[in-house]
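Duplicate of #3305? Posting structure anyway:
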C-alpha cells in the first residue's frame, strides 16, 4: 500500500544519503543486505498490491519475502469457534471488525518474527490520518519500534508518492499510486477502500488540522470549512456535520491507541504523539455538548433557508 511504499522509499533514501559514493547497482546491493520487506496476503488481498509490493522491493533492491497467511487465518477462526461457540461470518455485522483485525495481527506476529530473525528494527507504517481516528489495528499494522510517517497525513502521503515516482523515476510507485488506498481486509467483492470506511482524506486532514492545531470546536470547524466544502457535499450541510461528528468521536475514542504507538518524528507544525507533547484524555465524553450545539446550528440554518 501507499504507507508501506513511502516508508520503503524513505529507508532506501536513507542508505543513499549514508553512502553517496555508491553507484545505483552497488546501492541496491547495499540496500538488499540491510533492508527486508514482506507481503503477507490472504484471500482478501489483491493481485495488484502483491505485484506492486514485489516490483517496488525489486526496484529499491530490498530483500522481499512473500507469505500466505490464509491457513493461519482459517486456523484462528476455527479455534475461536471452538472456544466461543461462534462461527464468524462476514454476513454478521458484529463480526466485521474481529475478522478484519485478526488478519492484521497475524501479519504483525509474523513480521515481528522476521525482524527478530534478521535482528532488525521493525518499521511501523501508520500515517497521521489513521492515528487521528484510530484506523489501525493495535498489535497489527501498528507493530514496530519506529514509525517514520506517523506525523504525515494521508493526503500528503499520496501527493509525495506521486512526486517521488516522477522525481526518482520509479515506475513501481506509479502502480502504487494508481491503486485506491485500501486495507484489503474485507472480501474483494465488497470493494473496500479507506475513504469509504472513513471519509475523503482531503476532508479528514483538514478536520485534524483545525481540531488539533487551531483548537476549534465542532461548530467552529463547520463555520470555517463549510464554505470550502459546500459544493463537495452538494450543498447539504447535514452530510458534512455527519463527517465532523464521526471524526470527533473517532478522534476521542482513539487516544488510547495513540498512547501505544511507536516513536515517531515531528514532520508538520503539530503532531499527535503523547510522548512529545500532545496530551489528551483517553477517557472522556467526546464533545457531546459541542456536537449537540453543532446539530442545532445546522437545523436552524436549514430552517432559515426553508
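Output from current build:
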Amino acid at each position: 500500500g501507499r504507507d508501506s511504499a513511502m516508508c520503503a522509499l524513505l529507508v532506501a533514501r536513507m542508505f543513499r544519503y549514508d553512502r553517496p559514493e555508491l553507484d545505483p547497482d552497488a546501492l541496491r546491493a547495499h540496500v538488499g543486505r540491510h533492508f527486508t520487506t514482506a507481503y503477507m496476503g490472504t484471500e482478501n488481498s489483491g493481485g495488484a498490491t502483491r505485484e506492486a509490493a514485489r516490483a517496488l522491493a525489486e526496484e529499491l533492491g530490498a530483500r522481499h519475502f512473500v507469505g500466505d497467511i490464509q491457513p493461519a487465518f482459517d486456523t484462528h477462526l476455527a479455534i475461536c469457534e471452538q472456544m466461543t461457540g461462534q462461527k464468524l461470518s462476514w454476513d454478521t455485522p458484529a463480526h466485521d471488525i474481529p475478522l478484519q483485525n485478526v488478519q492484521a495481527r497475524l501479519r504483525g506476529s509474523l513480521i515481528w518474527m522476521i525482524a527478530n530473525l534478521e535482528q532488525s528494527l521493525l518499521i511501523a507504517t501508520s500515517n497521521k490520518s489513521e492515528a487521528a481516528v484510530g484506523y489501525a489495528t493495535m498489535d497489527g499494522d501498528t507493530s514496530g519500534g519506529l514509525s517514520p510517517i506517523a506525523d504525515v497525513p494521508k493526503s500528503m502521503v499520496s501527493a509525495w508518492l506521486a512526486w517521488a515516482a516522477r522525481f526518482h523515476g520509479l515506475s513501481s510507485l506509479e502502480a502504487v499510486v494508481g491503486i485506491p488506498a485500501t486495507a484489503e481486509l474485507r472480501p474483494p467483492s465488497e470493494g473496500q477502500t479507506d475513504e469509504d470506511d472513513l471519509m475523503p482524506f482531503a476532508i479528514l486532514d483538514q478536520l485534524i488540522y483545525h481540531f488539533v492545531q487551531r483548537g476549534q470546536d465542532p461548530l467552529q470547524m463547520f463555520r470555517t470549512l463549510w464554505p470550502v466544502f459546500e459544493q463537495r457535499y452538494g450543498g447539504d450541510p447535514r452530510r458534512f456535520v455527519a463527517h465532523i461528528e464521526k471524526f470527533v468521536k473517532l478522534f476521542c475514542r482513539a487516544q488510547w491507541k495513540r498512547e501505544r504507538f511507536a516513536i515517531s518524528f515531528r514532520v508538520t507544525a503539530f503532531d499527535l504523539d503523547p510522548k512529545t507533547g500532545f496530551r489528551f484524555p483517553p477517557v472522556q465524553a467526546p464533545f457531546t455538548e459541542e456536537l449537540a450545539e453543532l446539530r442545532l446550528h445546522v437545523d436552524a440554518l436549514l430552517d432559515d433557508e426553508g
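Confirmed duplicate; merging threads. The beta strands are 36-41, 63-68, 146-147, 263-264. The longest strand covers residues 36-41.
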